[in-house]
């Protein structure tokens, strides 16, 4: 099977999957029967297999369709390989493992003791740039022989004209009520 083309492997996998479908209730038996044909399995089937706790051996992993391997993330590969996940470190210099590692983030690969993946994404938590203006007000109100001088300041966001008008009206109202 290893010398077959991807198309031939896919055809053989389809036949094997259909033939061994009665064994799916026993994941270990099913995996043992179908493992030789997994080189033709689509990514969905490999991901589904990772949930069955089958502990895929490194040889079977290396014989998977390269496009399928590229599509697997670190957590899926860890689940898929189970107790055999340490073998990835032993085979880290093979073309297949290097190709897969190159698709993963270094922080994810650290769990497996591997490196050589993509740089971790930089999260941006910076707030968007905002322009502020400080408005100084000085109001003098004279009413029935009383003079009240007020001075204040406020931070105003540009583009918030209604807010500024409301603030000014509010300050004026408070000032008039104190008279």
C-alpha Rg (nearest Å): 34 Å
Question: What share of residues are in beta strands?
Answer: 5-15%
Provide the helix percentage: 40-55%
The span between the termini is 96 Å
The major β-sheet equals: 2 strands, antiparallel
The helix-strand sequence is: HHHHHHHHHEEH
**Category by helix and strand content:** alpha+beta
Q: What's the total helix number?
A: 10
Which residue ranges are poorly predicted, with pLDDT under 50 across at least 5 consecutive positions? 129-135
Instruction: Count every beta strand, where a strand is a DSSP E run of 2 or more residues.
Output: 2
Average of the residue pLDDT scores: 82
Question: What does this protein structure show overall?
Answer:
The protein is an alpha+beta fold. The chain contains ten helices and two strands. The protein has helices spanning 6-19, 27-34, 43-50, 58-62, 66-71, 74-81, 87-90, 95-102, 106-109, 161-177, and strands at residues 132-143, 146-157. Strand 1 and strand 2 (146-157) form a beta hairpin. It is elongated, with a radius of gyration of 34 Å. The model is unreliable at 129-135 (pLDDT under 50).
Features:
two-stranded antiparallel sheet, 179 residues, alpha+beta
Write the layout of secondary structure elements.
Blueprint: H1 6-19, H2 27-34, H3 43-50, H4 58-62, H5 66-71, H6 74-81, H7 87-90, H8 95-102, H9 106-109, E1 132-143, E2 146-157, H10 161-177
Antiparallel strand pairs: 1-2
């Amino acid at each position: 099977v290893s010398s077959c083309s991807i198309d031939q492997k896919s055809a053989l996998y389809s036949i094997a999957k259909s033939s061994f479908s009665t064994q799916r209730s026993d994941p270990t038996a099913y995996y043992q029967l179908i493992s030789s044909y997994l080189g033709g399995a689509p990514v969905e089937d490999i991901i589904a297999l990772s949930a069955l706790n089958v502990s895929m051996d490194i040889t079977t992993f290396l014989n998977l369709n390269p496009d399928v391997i590229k599509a697997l993330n670190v957590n899926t590969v860890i689940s898929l390989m189970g107790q055999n996940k340490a073998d990835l470190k032993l085979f880290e210099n093979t073309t297949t493992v290097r190709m897969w590692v190159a698709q993963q983030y270094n922080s994810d690969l650290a769990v497996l003791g591997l490196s050589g993946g993509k740089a971790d994404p930089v999260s941006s938590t910076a707030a968007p740039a905002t322009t502020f203006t400080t408005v100084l007000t000085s109001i003098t109100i004279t009413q029935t022989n009383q003079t009240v001088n007020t001075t204040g300041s406020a931070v105003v966001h540009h583009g918030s004209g209604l807010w500024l008008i409301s603030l000014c009206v509010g300050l004026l109202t408070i000032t008039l009520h104190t008279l």
